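Minutes, project check-in
Item: structure for the 173-residue chain
Input as provided by the requester:
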Amino acid sequence: MRLYGNKIPSIVKDIVKGLLDAQIVEIEANNIPEVELDIESVLKEYLRAERALTEEAKDLAHSRGLDYSAHQKIKRTLAEKRKFGLYEDSIKYLSDQLLETLLYTHHVEEIYGDDHEVRAVLAPVLKRHMNQNDNLDVEVRKHIKNLQEGTQDWEIRYQQVMERLRAARGEVG
């Protein structure tokens, strides 16, 4: 599972709507945009931290004279040491981060549900949005399988094919 920056606005809206619909939180109408910004900041920070982890892993692989394929293993090791949720652990990690934010933000009036009830709203929303891109990711990778993953050519071509496929599906990038 992977979080994509272009999905953040949809995820934010769906999380707030889900929490309000389930009557798990109370948010004054004028504070909804602030809560959305709080949630957005958690998701954007996750993306920033993941990118930094990727770069650090690439640098370590390069400095050790390892080929690009080793960087994923190094990235996973770094994430485990930092207790950062990657891949299959990302949903739980993000749910925990979002729950913490909801508990401590001054923009949420009241949380009526237990932690597990809040997570029960957060996790399916994250999973749904992050899973949609997994299928697209597989399709993109099929189109560029002739390129070496991790190279600049691969990264550029990946983005081009991803944008083309999204446009073909009518998704906003």
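Outcome recorded: The first helix runs from residue 8 to 21.
No further action items on this chain.
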